[in-house]
Amino acid sequence: MLENIISEWIRCINEYYEINRDENYEYEVPDIDNQLKNDMFEFVEANKFKKSLRALIV
User: Mind listing the pLDDT tens digit for each residue in 24-57?
Assistant: First the structure.
């Protein structure tokens, strides 16, 4: 069960970044539930924050 959840989460994250490769982040991944969507956006926001910290350090 957990393996399926993680696999689905990774698939959605990958699809999200593929759809939004221009980094506008305007399009959502279809056919996902709200919890998965919230988790995905939390990951995306954390990733953006990490990138901004790297830019400040360099």
Answer: 766 666 777 787 778 877 887 888 888 888 888 8
Whether the CB-CB separation of 14 and 44 falls below 8 Å is answered with: no
Alpha helices per DSSP H over 1-58: 2-19, 34-57
- How many Cβ atoms from other residues are within 10 Å of residue 8's Cβ? 13
Q: Each residue of 5-24: pLDDT tens digit? A: 788 888 888 887 888 777 77
Q: How far is CA 37 from CA 17, 22, 32, 43, in A?
A: 13, 20, 6, 10
CA 55 vs CA 10, 16, 17, 22, 23: distances in Å: 26, 23, 20, 18, 16
